[in-house]
Known about the structure:
The complex is a heterodimer of chains A (116) and B (109).
Chain A: E1 4-7, E2 10-13, E3 18-25, E4 31-37, E5 44-50, E6 53-57, E7 64-70, E8 73-79, E9 87-94, E10 106-107, E11 111-115
Parallel strand pairs in A: 2-11
Antiparallel strand pairs in A: 1-3, 3-8, 4-5, 4-9, 5-6, 7-8, 9-10, 9-11
Chain B: E1 3-5, E2 9-13, E3 18-25, E4 32-37, E5 44-49, E6 53-57, E7 60-65, E8 70-75, E9 84-91, E10 97-99, E11 103-108
Parallel strand pairs in B: 2-11
Antiparallel strand pairs in B: 1-3, 3-8, 4-5, 4-9, 6-7, 7-8, 9-10, 9-11
Amino acid sequence: ETGVTQTPRHLVMGMTNKKSLKCEQHLGHNAMYWYKQSAKKPLELMFVYNFKEQTENNSVPSRFSPECPNSSHLFLHLHTLQPEDSALYLCASSHPPGTSGRDTQYFGPGTRLTVL
Amino acid sequence: GQNIDQPTEMTATEGAIVQINCTYQTSGFNGLFWYQQHAGEAPTFLSYNVLDGLEEKGRFSSFLSRSKGYSYLLLKELQMKDSASYLCAVRDSWGKLQFGAGTQVVVTP
C-alpha cells in the first residue's frame, strides 16, 4: 500500500467515448503527476501539478485533459482517443519537486487503458 | 535532453547476486532513483543517490558515480519475489524525473 490509489484499474473504451481516470493520494503531498507507461518503453511524464497549479505539460495531445481540484485528487479526462493511446497510466505524488530526496515520487497501481 | 540506458533483461539464480547498471547523459543532474515494479503493480521506491558512493539498504545497494554518469543497483541473496522490473530514473535541474526503460530481472530456482 503506497498511499496512492487509482480508479478504475482497467478501462476499455472506444475511440468516441469520454471517460475519466481518478487518482487520490493520502500522503499529505502537494505535487501530483500523470505518467504513461507503454510496453518496453520508459515512463513518459505527461502532466505535473504543484499546489493545484499545472506546472508541466509535456506536449500531450489535447485529447488528454487533466484536472486537479485539490492537492489530494487528480483526474485525467479522456476523449476521442486513438488505439496507440492504449497503455498503463500511472499517477504519482510527492512533496514539491526540487533537488532533495524529500520529493521522492510515490506511485499508484495504474489504470490499464485499452482503446478499441 | 537526457538518455538513460539500462539492460533489458537479466536472469539469475535464487540466492545469487545481480548488478543492474544504469548509464545516463544529462544536461543537469540532481539525483538518481531506483524503483522496483512488479507486473501489474505500482513502481515502488527503492533508493536515492545524489552524492558519489554506495547506499546500502538491507539486501539492496545502489552506487553512483556522477563523473562517469553511472549507477548500479545491487541485489543480494536473490529471492523469487525479486523477479520484477527495475527502473532507473534521473532527476534534472528542474526536479523532473527521466526514466530508463527498465531492466526485467528473472530469478530462477
